[in-house]
Amino acid sequence: MNSDILFSIIIANYNYGRYVGDAIDSALAQDWPHVEVIVVDDGSTDDSADVIARYGDRIRAVFTKNRGQREANNTGFEISRGDAVIFLDSDDVLLPGLLREIASVWREGLSKVQVMMQRVDTQKRPNGGTVPKMALAPPPAQIRQWVDATFEYPTPPSSANAWSRRFLNAIFPLDGTHDAATDSTCIAMAPYMGDVITIPKPLVLYRMHGANDSTMTARDTNYSREVTRGMKRLQAAQNACRIRGVPPPTTDILFFGGNLLQFRVASLRLTPKAHPLPGDSRPRALFDALLLPFRPSFQRLSTRLMIVGWSVLTLLVPERFARFLITKRYS
Questions:
Q1: More confident site: 55 or 136
Q2: In sequence order, which residues have a C-beta less than 8 Å from that of residue 163 and are 6 or more positions away?
Q3: 37 lies in a domain?
Q4: Residues 74, 220: one domain?
Q5: Which of 91, 183, 191, 329 has a 20 to 30 A CA-CA distance from 246?
């Protein structure tokens, strides 16, 4: 274990005054000798500033006008010094021992170390399974094979990733051509620019509440938004390949993954006029669904077969039944 690693925990906050204290506490409570905690408040209008101010010089606090998560994390990264950087969402919580677990596998040549997240409710009580679902740690070469085949791999959202500074230095600051969510870009680029190391333990709490960006059923347009995010991730991956001087993936790869397929299906049924993926259609999605069991994938065959069944039904039934199936899937 490299005990000299400096961890930067960057918390971008906007109007999460009721949660941000838990996030800061969890960062400060980590049993590691070298940690800096940076909180960037993105123009909150609630009591966030008061909550953050209570920590005094135990953290480095920055208060800015509202510019969005991407810019807040750009600001935090610019003033950070860590060898390993965690972008902790202000409604999530790091569990004790996380940094020691990460340090135990840290090495040169990686782009990130990822852990699992436990879904919890607003009171931090378990409320579902883990993200991602996996029992064993896939080797980095296997992750790259999955990415090359389908542009998908098992990965958690932002808070459960520790990024190497070498990797982030190559891509930051993120500009407006990238997705508004920092993790979307970093997750897409990571396998192309270094090894992805997995610790298959739930070491972060993923708080689920009505204001989560991941609450898909809130608006019909959320599904087309996710397809657009997939397209932006592809652009980011293509940029990563240009940085590395290797052939980039083509747009065709967006038709191969099972996760994006489900967003495509929902988008095509609920907001077909807003569907952003060129060349896509309900017949094309049906064709891709039927091929899914035969493509390389990190998902179990049983999972892919369930995706096939849901996709085929959702594409073929009348709209009101399609809406019911989509709501059931994403509730």
A1: 55
A2: 84, 85, 86, 87, 111, 112, 186, 190
A3: yes
A4: no
A5: 183
Question: Is 142 in the same domain as 241?
Answer: no
Cα–Cα distance measured from residue 143 to residue 60, given in angstroms and rounded to the nearest whole number: 35
In the predicted structure, residue 113 carries a pLDDT above the cut 70: yes
CATH of the domain at 159: 3.90.550.10
CA angle 36, 39, 44 (to 5 degrees): 175
- Exposure pattern of 50-74 as b/e (b: 16+ CB <10 Å)? ebbeebeeebbbbeeeeebbbbbbb
Are the beta carbons of 22 and 120 closer than 8 angstroms? no
Q: Is 189 helix (H, G, I), strand (E, B) or coil?
A: helix
Domain that includes residue 130, residue range: 7-207
Judgement on whether residues 97 and 123 belong to the same structural domain of the protein: yes
Residue 133 CB: number of other CB atoms within 10 A? Answer: 12
- Residues ≥6 apart with Cβ < 8 Å to 284: 255
Say what the pTM is. 0.94
